[in-house]
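Side project, low priority. Logging it here so it doesn't get lost.
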Amino acid sequence: MKYNCDMIADLLPLYIDDVCSPSSRQAVEEHLSECQPCRKLCEDMRSCDSDIDRGIAEERDKVLEKQAKFFKRRSAIAGSIIGAIFAIPILICLIVNLATGAGLTWFFIVLTAMFIPASLIVVPLMSAENRLLRTVVSFTGSIILLLAVCCIYSGGSWFFTAASAVLFGLSIPFMPIVVNSRPVAKRIGKKKGLLLVGEYTLSFLLMMICIGIRHGSDGFFRMAAAYSLPPLIFLWTMFMIICLTKWNGLIKTAACILAGALLFFFNDAIVLLIYNGTVHIPAPGFSFSTQEKANDTLCWSVLIGGAVIASFFALAGTLVSGLKKNKKENK
């Protein structure tokens, strides 16, 4: 044999951990192919390392599990204490209501109002998983419940108007959290963008319908449709360009800028067509002598500026795509 066993035994730990030089690795492998005792030693060392690694992994899992139970227990205790603190003003209001003979009137308003801070403090502490999703859902539900109780005890009929507006407003910052949460994301897969845009659209339409039924006069829904359609078209256009096309980022940017400029240019035309059936296309020319001409000038400026900027992004995107294609072909 070219190498003696003592030298190979010294190199085996480095060889097993794959940190030796290529020449040392080659020497060890040549020796192991010829020497049965060293081969057996190598197998024993590998088995020993495997048992050690397994033991370390098991110990680590036990420590993590123990720490998780510890923090879960502490969170539950903290949540219970805070919940008890929130119960104090509720109990006081109940006693005062009953003592004054007022019955359970504004007690329920105080009770549902306390659900709001509880949803932001107690729910995260008491939840073992999906804390953010549960906090968002409980916070939204507590606000809707408070609105319902206030509406009932005030004798009003404004609940659906207020609730629909609150749902639409909260959905703007909270829906991205909901669709990216683990249980929801697992179910919808790659349809996050579609669900997000669809929810924005439906909650907005629900709000406008509730407002129209409650406060709308003659022609409200026509006016609401006229002014709501352009932003909804813009929202869905951006979604389709960003999520449904396979263009690179620069070309998508160009398409978004051009689509936004076009929608701005034809915004008044869409509004007037739906509202009173007239068609207005911005007249070419740059003049600020009247309000209408100033508006037409602004529309043409946005359209031309958007087209120029979009052209630069489209050209850059085309060049980048060409370079990537050539690089792949050369490989």
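Brief comment: The first helix runs from residue 5 to 16.
Revisit when time allows.
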